[in-house]
């Protein structure tokens, strides 16, 4: 035989949570309509950075590919020449591919990168309906050209050799001095 | 890297010295270096300049250890420097002595500190550009800086820089900033290859590796300097930035470019071979390989590589892509309809593939018309191979060359035709071996071996060999070795004379072919009068022996040789041809070979890449390149060199699988479809211990011309192929090609004067079939002889001149 | 021109396919197929904070008959593959598959003999979602992208033609290893 409490109070008590919640702020995120920013160091899609003159920071050293636990990165290096220069120094990444269907966004590649060429953005809307489009190539990964940058290949504009770039002893950019 | 145990066993107990290293007592043979003695107890002393195959030099000072020697009272006394200071010693130049006490970095803080100091000094001017350096990941400097270096640098000043990289040859790039001046490359060039165009120049901080500007670093062995460089100072132009070592899959294999069977390591990445390195095999190539073995591998992925079987469309007459089963059926029907069929194969086959061709011809086609010799050949050579070479197993070896007193070379230029053999001969020559060469002139290779020339005009080799039996100076006896090149086949009587010379003097005889598959083809019976294992066709017992394994009978009539097959095809006696990897331009008469392929009613071509043969063929069957199949090459020694499949993902079929497919359609299965099964059948077959064919006795006088002087106003033609030439196996390796020696026609000074041109001017050489223009040079040839490379700079002697070695050609000066 | 001009105001015209697509996407019931860590994120997506019910997807169906979408959340082992296929076969048409996370999409970091290297070896996948695991926003994004697909999906003979076209394309396609560059 249920007690009085069980017969009358308990069924009402169950609604107590509901009633209390009616006066609380709604926690639901209206995701696609209102996007909440991620944590600043969220591991999203990669980006290949550029020097302020537009040259690529990537030197094609393949250390990211070596660090990758999922074997999601493929890099092929090639030689910079005087006529065709993509990065300061001898070597640049001719082929750069990240397979986002393997990548676990762990960030070990970022730690391995000796020139800070590879970093991660906060972008996460990556879903696609086929496998081929989820292999991002170099042109998909390269950072956009900001004002003052010039599309490589071009000569080193900020210094005489790669040492100037790595040490940060840039010569003032042309358009800045003019302005 | 260690003292071989074999050597250790040979030393008597009395020749051992006992020393103490890190508190462990160890006995080593007298003369052992301390660094090697330490290896015996498992202590790795860091080193850069030390290399077991090069003379010690003590250049890098990285191997410093603390050493104490027993004093007069027997107590060990530490070797001291300035008063009160211990002086560490370089263990790579210090020989172990009795009672020595060595403390390495493991037990001695002094040695450890000394090594760290040396490492710091070496790194002062090192650019530390490991991420872009090709050596990064497999670099002794990287590794030893981690294990024996300081964690932090104290050097904050500006580093010395050089422009980089600079080419010291088309193939080798030098980065002087990275160099630690260990002198491994210069010592290799001087001591091993004998091409000392590379040396240490300047002094102090500016000391650097350099080349003599007027003479480029041209060596057939330059790739070895890249491999032994302990830093990334020497890198390869072909491999530059191609891959990183941690991304490569390494597979041991055997080089397919010459008959030396050098051990190599093939590194591939995602189904593509990116580089090849020398393997380590003390019995064969030690640690050295030729540049051709190292850099010549892109031929298998050229654009004209065949990927699908093709059959000739009956309606359009064009080749069209077909499936494998269809191609097998078409090939089998065509061969059945064609009637008598001949089989021509090149010299690049593995032993298993050669065996498959041999069995295919005998069992499926029922013919003995099979020959692997896509070059000048003779019936005398066939008898020589049957009597002396086929199925004889391991004969003269590389190691034997170091043990004998005299080696006679005839019809063989080792530097061009068997590079690894050349290195071993040179090593032996430096220790006192006498090299005698029967050749038209003192080639660069012979000079580097400090050899003696028996100047012989082409065609007179037989006489020279006969004369050698009575030559008191050479004094060939049982302690001598006679190395016979395949080119002697074109000289009537020469092989007979060589066999006779070996018989009378007791010298050992070895036949050194140029191509990797030649010796295997002889063993597999790819000759009209020879069955596998050296069994003669006309020996009933041999046929029965073979029949028990094959389960069929074999024809008893010896077939036609390659020239005979070609002639019979032109005459219409042979309707079908099965051609496996023959380039018509290699044959003695390219025009006739082309005509035969055109005349034959049905041609089946097994090829790697599109050639003249595949264009004329009725069925084209693509086959696997050496890296895409397992197999065995038989070296000139008779040593079997099995290797596995490198590119495991490849679906290309080896020749034997293709032949098995056709044989199945013909209703006469070969009985094996895999390399393993073919290998098993070969070993089941075993060798032949019955009667052999007698050695040939072709007399020399009958066909040779009287003297080496000019016949009329023509010159006698001497020729052979240079190592790096126009060979299709080097297609795509442009950097390697660029290191090849330029085509130069060589004549004697007297002949040159007769031509009325200066050395270096162009001359036109005219043979029966055409002419070629190339620069002329002077060498110590006999008057009336001209030497041409057989296939360099676009000039193919067989094709363009229509002449083979020994033919008469005319040379005219004054061409443009 | 046609019927549009003669209609009174307030009446909208659309195609049957358009209506059917709208209906389908608006009540899109997922089957639970949580296999590993991704399932936790999938559950979170159904919870109050991300609230998939905003898109009519609140009921994760345990019975395949009642489900339209299979979210394969996690690595599929070789042993699980036939089960997965069976569940898929039991679902009623029209049905969709979403490979959630890198393991379901391509095997991810588990490049080994135990894991199916991509669930598309077993069932046709309509949407691939990278991430390890993908955050709920990424899943919602993928589902919305799938909604767009559903909205424009064909019916009847058009559907049959579409299936045939896709089939031909798939048969003629290069192997994945050769499709794009050097990665697989």
TrEMBL record, chain A:
It catalyses: a quinone + NADH + 5 H(+)(in) = a quinol + NAD(+) + 4 H(+)(out). Residues 48-78, 94-123 form the 4Fe-4S ferredoxin-type domain. [4Fe-4S] cluster 2 binds at residues 68, 103, 106, 109. GO terms for molecular function: 4 iron, 4 sulfur cluster binding; iron ion binding; NADH dehydrogenase (quinone) (non-electrogenic) activity; quinone binding. NDH-1 is composed of 14 different subunits. Subunits NuoA, H, J, K, L, M, N constitute the membrane sector of the complex. Its main location: membrane. It comes from Nocardioides iriomotensis. Keywords: 4Fe-4S, Cell membrane, Iron, Iron-sulfur, Membrane, Metal-binding, NAD, Oxidoreductase, Quinone, Repeat, Translocase, Ubiquinone. PROSITE patterns: 4FE4S_FER_1, 4FE4S_FER_2. [4Fe-4S] cluster 1 binds at residues 58, 61, 64, 113. InterPro entries: 4Fe4S_Fe-S-bd, 4Fe4S_Fe_S_CS, NADH_quinone_OxRdtase_chainI. Its EC number is 7.1.1.-. One of its GO terms (biological process) is aerobic respiration. This is NADH-quinone oxidoreductase subunit I.
UniProtKB/TrEMBL annotation, chain B:
SMART domains: NADH-G_4Fe-4S_3. Signal peptide: none annotated. Residues 697-710 have a biased composition (Low complexity). It is found in: Membrane. Residues 15-108 form the 2Fe-2S ferredoxin-type domain. Its EC number is 7.1.1.-. One of its GO terms (cellular component) is membrane. It catalyses: a quinone + NADH + 5 H(+)(in) = a quinol + NAD(+) + 4 H(+)(out). GO terms for molecular function: 2 iron, 2 sulfur cluster binding; 4 iron, 4 sulfur cluster binding; metal ion binding; NADH dehydrogenase (ubiquinone) activity; NADH dehydrogenase activity; quinone binding. Residues 248-304 form the 4Fe-4S Mo/W bis-MGD-type domain. InterPro entries: 2Fe-2S_ferredoxin-like_sf (IPR036010), 2Fe-2S_ferredoxin-type (IPR001041), Asp_de-COase-like_dom_sf (IPR009010), Mopterin_OxRdtase (IPR006656), Mopterin_OxRdtase_4Fe-4S_dom (IPR006963), NADH_UbQ_OxRdtase_75kDa_su_CS (IPR000283), NADH_UbQ_OxRdtase_ferredoxin (IPR054351), NADH_UbQ_OxRdtase_Gsu (IPR010228). Its cofactor is [2Fe-2S] cluster; [4Fe-4S] cluster. Keywords: 2Fe-2S, 4Fe-4S, Iron, Iron-sulfur, Membrane, Metal-binding, NAD, Oxidoreductase, Quinone, Translocase. Residues 693-713 are annotated as: Disordered. Residues 110-149 form the 4Fe-4S His(Cys)3-ligated-type domain. Binds 1 [2Fe-2S] cluster per subunit. GO terms for biological process: ATP synthesis coupled electron transport. NDH-1 shuttles electrons from NADH, via FMN and iron-sulfur (Fe-S) centers, to quinones in the respiratory chain. Couples the redox reaction to proton translocation (for every two electrons transferred, four hydrogen ions are translocated across the cytoplasmic membrane), and thus conserves the redox energy in a proton gradient. This is NADH-quinone oxidoreductase. It comes from Nocardioides iriomotensis.
From TrEMBL, chain C:
The gene is nuoB. PROSITE patterns: COMPLEX1_20K (PS01150). Pfam families: Oxidored_q6. Its EC number is 7.1.1.-. GO terms for molecular function: 4 iron, 4 sulfur cluster binding; iron ion binding; NADH dehydrogenase (quinone) (non-electrogenic) activity; NADH dehydrogenase (ubiquinone) activity; quinone binding. Signal peptide: none annotated. NDH-1 shuttles electrons from NADH, via FMN and iron-sulfur (Fe-S) centers, to quinones in the respiratory chain. The immediate electron acceptor for the enzyme in this species is believed to be a menaquinone. Couples the redox reaction to proton translocation (for every two electrons transferred, four hydrogen ions are translocated across the cytoplasmic membrane), and thus conserves the redox energy in a proton gradient. PANTHER family: NADH DEHYDROGENASE, NADH DEHYDROGENASE [UBIQUINONE] IRON-SULFUR PROTEIN 7, MITOCHONDRIAL. Keywords: 4Fe-4S, Cell membrane, Iron, Iron-sulfur, Membrane, Metal-binding, NAD, Quinone, Translocase, Transport. Transmembrane segments: none annotated. It comes from Nocardioides iriomotensis. NCBIfam families: nuoB_fam (TIGR01957), PRK06411.1 (NF005012). GO terms for cellular component: plasma membrane; respiratory chain complex I. InterPro entries: NADH_UbQ_OxRdtase-like_20kDa (IPR006137), NADH_UQ_OxRdtase_20Kd_su (IPR006138). Its main location: membrane. This is NADH-quinone oxidoreductase subunit B. GO terms for biological process: aerobic respiration; electron transport coupled proton transport. Binds 1 [4Fe-4S] cluster. NDH-1 is composed of 14 different subunits. Subunits NuoB, C, D, E, F, and G constitute the peripheral sector of the complex.
